[in-house]
Amino acid sequence: MPELRDLFDREAVASQINPPALAALEERARHRVRRNRVAGAAVIAALVAVPLLTMRGEDDLGVPPPLQTPSPSPSPPAAPAFPPPLRDPGDYVVNQTFSSLSHGFAVYQAGAHHLCAAWLSTTEDGGSTWSELHQLPGSHHEESTEDDGGCYGPELVPVAAEILVLNQLSDPPTSFISRDTGQTWQEYHPRARVADAVPAGVNLQTHCLSENLCEEQVLSWHDPETGDIVELSGNAPGAFTADVRVATDGSIWLAGIGAQTGYHVSVSRDRGRSWQTTTLGEDPDPTDLGNGAAFTTHDGVTAYFATRGSTAGRDGSGSLYRTVDGGRSWQRIADGRPVSPIFGLWVTPDGSLVAADDRHGRYLSTDQGETFAPADLLPVASVQPIAGGFYGWVSDPDHPYDIYLSEDGLVWRPVQAPSR
Amino acid sequence: VNHRDVIQELYAGSYRRLVLQLYPVTGDLGEAQEVVQEAFVRLLAKPSRATSLDNPEAWLRTVAVNLVRSRWRRGKLLQRLLRRIEAEPTTMPGATPDHVALMTALRQLPMGQRAAVALHYLADLPIREVAEVLEVSVGTVKSRLARGRVALATALGGSADSPATVRSTHHA
Question: Which of A94, A158, A262, A393 is least buried, going by the fewest C-beta atoms within 10 A?
Fold first, then answer.
């Protein structure tokens, strides 16, 4: 066999390497510091987007509490006791998410003292109070080198009311299921099966087709009864899925990006049995597929897709597209928009469109994206639909809160992280 | 000490080299760039680390390799459940046929063997350093290299015991 290094074409590979501007990475780092410092509303389950199919009015996960105008100093909730041997909240990375306006989950992962262990605290009242900490099963106390990725954080997937699935990425990986909101857990071996349509009331996920590459993803969900993984058989044309949304009319939307396919949007109006796909005429930066777009729809008729162009929009080449006919045709709009690049994009139940840039700017459009006005009082920069409303998180590191909940996408209530 | 200046210099000097080293580990250039970028993001999140570490580039490499392994474990969990088998072609514009064959063969190796082979044979790390990066013993690395060599020889149509291959293993 010839010398391996002689087979490796360094020159060809090096010619394809395009380092992004260091400033772009610094911006990501600032967001990271903010999220980790308190309770980054980052997704607990790393299985990409987990929007709920349960739509407003169908909330079987709990009745949301009444929302209030953001208050500068809400009463601090009862903080859970920190587990030994760590007593300082700063010893933990806290990842927090909500599956509805009432039900939230905070995973505490030991992040500073070489412990590969994690604990769960839950709330059933929108973050006003949090439960005592319960150690998650499969936590291992072996040492790891500091912050080098050696501790594999658990993936917590809210499946349905009171049902959680936990994937521990130890070697070998193990799965656990809880039917009492994390009070008790059972190790289980989920089976995999295929379905030709998406049932109502499940949390959609996307996962990668390839074991090592993530250039193509498919829709899947956990069976709320058994915890089994169900994969949609007739998936949309494959690509990296930037976003998944379920509209109030039941239509399912996938906003995709692919190095070969470019930006595209697929919509299904028969629960995933068939898809209509439209390609938007723009080439993404292949080195930044995971950060390259934002998508939103509410009613399934009007939808918006914001691309960020090359190098995460640093060259200002991102575009905003709109459909008003359910995805059959798309128009590029708002060339003079005040935000570029757009990092957060959401449409409210009343049809207003909110765009957020990565420099703490918020803009509101009430004419379907034709014009925008500054809306700096909106506290959040990124928004995820949940049962009964939205949760969003903040990008401004000087803002006193990190996570907000909202019924309508416009009036937001701050959530006190349990570690404070 | 201006940490940012240190990181900027490190970025300018190390980014391409790290991507070149991680590419054979991931089998995909885009993913290699993603994990190297993520490693720099972690460094930028705590910039004082840039001056406190003895070898920041080695730290970045370790972080990037661990990110690849973490991604692979996540994928492995789903693949185990869904019983999928990887069958992706490899592409690199302008690369030699030998390079394409090598990358295709590397991607067929189990993750542990692939990482060891890539870091030792292609990134020129001593076996001891590969063991540190992968958090395994030197013996395990040698075992993975031996098994990886046999598998690659089969895939590339040669002998695993050829002098050329053995020559690059003795600087552990």
Answer: A262
Tell me the C-alpha distance between A290 and B67, whole Å: 15
- Which residues in chain A have their CB less than 8 angstroms from residue B93's CB? 12, 16
State both tokens at A314. Answer: 């640093």
Peptide bond into A224 cis (omega under 30): no
Structure tokens belonging to residue A351:
């049809």
Chain B residue with Cα closest to A155: B74
Answer yes or no: are the C-beta atoms of B71 and B79 closer than 8 Å. Answer: no
- Put simply, whether B163 touches A (Cβ < 8 Å) is no
- Per DSSP, the three-state class of B108 is coil
Q: Would the CB atoms of B122 and A209 count as touching at under 8 Å?
A: no
Q: If you average pLDDT over every residue of chain A, what do you get? A: 73
Q: Do A152 and B70 touch (CB under 8 A)?
A: yes
Cβ-based neighbour number of residue A46 at 10 Å: 18
State the pLDDT at residue A249. Answer: 92
Nearest-angstrom CA–CA distance, A320 and B159: 56
Record: contact A7-B156, CB cut-off 8 A = yes
Tokens 């128009």 found at: A331
Q: Is the pLDDT of residue A183 over 80?
A: yes
Whole-prediction pTM: 0.61
Token pair listed for B130:
């590969």
In this predicted structure, what is the pLDDT of residue A300?
A: 93
Give the rounded percent of residues in chain A with a pLDDT score beyond 70. Answer: 63
Give the minimum alpha-carbon distance from A179 to chain B in angstroms, rounded to a whole number: 21
Residue-level pLDDT at B81: 47
Average pLDDT over residues A119-127: 88
ipTM attached to this prediction: 0.74
Strand partners, A355: A345, A363
Is the per-residue pLDDT at A50 higher than 80? no
Residue with tokens 């991607």: B107
- β-pairing verdict for A413-415 and A403-406: antiparallel
